[in-house]
Amino acid sequence: MMNRRQMLGAGAAGAALVSSQAWGKTANMGLPEAASMHSAATQPPLSPTTGPDYNPVVTLNGWTLPFRMNNGVKEFHLVAEPVERELADGMIAHLWGYNGQSTGPTIEAVEGDRVRIFVTNKLPEHTTVHWHGLILPSGMDGVAGLSHPGIPPGKTFVYEFDLIKSGTFMYHPHGDEMVQMAMGMMGMFIVHPKDPAFMPVDRDFLIMLNAFDIDPGSYVPRVMEMTDFNLWCWNSRIFPDIDPLVVNQGDRVRVRTGNLTMTNHPIHMHGYDFEVTCTDGGWVPESARWPEVSIDIPVGAMRAYEFDAVHPGDWAIHCHKSHHTMNAMGHDIPTFIGADKRKLTGQIRKLQPEYMPMGTAGMADMGEMSMPLPDNTVPMMAGWGPYGPLEMGGMFSVVKVREGIDANDYSDPGWYENPPGTQAYEWTGELPDFARAEDAQTRITPKPSAKG
Ligand SMILES: [Cu+2]
């Protein structure tokens, strides 16, 4: 068994994709070179190279910002800039973000660290960075005009503070924030506990809920939209191109979910019950946790939940607002369920022979049909599973729990093969033996849950 530091070799494979910087030792170093990411693929976790050990987080379809040590201070360099983000394979959005991507890279540090974060503004207007949930001096809070002047285009400001508590936090602009957040500017800030034995988990996933309103065929979000967004994202990515959450059977798993959209999202995970263990206010004491299978993430808040991944399978995880598991769609379309469109179809086909009447028996046929789409958009319901179309888009992914997944392996293991007698089937008059829950229990050895 390798320990985490020995596994740095594995982490370095991902770090190589990051255009990295010179690592120095003195306090007189210049600005740290800003790492930049050009891929929307989930990057391997960035293992700690200094200070207390911790299990690094995995940002779905995202990455973690490298740092350098300067005389005991962890130095990061964020660059606020226009970016091109692949929201899905083949769909590009022209957004504003950080270091080449939206959402921005995850910042990861440890309770007790002093951090110095250089923020360079390459946007055409001023910006700031607000460190949501962190306890810090008032002048570091990043509210333009209140904490400090906005960072003018072309300038670099320095934020520096001590991380006095661990937990899950976020960062985003607090100057022209309606526009800048609608353009995709946001990221997560993880502070690990100084004591590695406090609330340990084997897998620690990050999901930032965000949303855009991008008309089919266009590239730039409509920033004035207040509620009627058409692309519901996790880390600026939509299903079917959100990566799965790959888990080794028996792992203790944490999912940290932040919400910087304009509405709440009830995140529902199949196959498990779980307990809410952290908010952006801090860790929830064990005596105050309660079981859930859906957790509502309020606007401007973070919720983390944990479970022991004892049940193998492919388990859906999604927002339970059914409009949020659809991609680009109009909402002002009449309902045709039960309507007889035969006469109308005949008339339209005289003008347009390929016309297909849709929606008279529900909309499931949308998932199977590949209709011509405008440039730069995605089907409303997409994604194929082993048994047909998933009829999902937007805020949806799959938790894939398997035996024998290596500690640092997050690659997609493919679809789950249901053991005989454990899958719904078409009734033809025979009733074969179904597996009993007691049999299933003997296959599962639950791990004692980590105590806080
Ligand atoms: Cu939602």
Automatic annotation (TrEMBL):
Source species: Leisingera caerulea
Domain Plastocyanin-like span(s) in chain numbering: 86-195, 219-331
Annotated segments matching region Disordered: 34-53
Keywords: Copper, Metal-binding, Oxidoreductase, Signal
Statement: the UniProt record of this protein carries the keyword Metal-binding: yes
CDD domains per the UniProt record, alphabetical: CuRO_1_2dMco_1, CuRO_D2_2dMcoN_like
Name of the protein this chain belongs to: Copper oxidase
Bias-annotated ranges (Polar residues): 39-52
Signal peptide start-end: 1-24
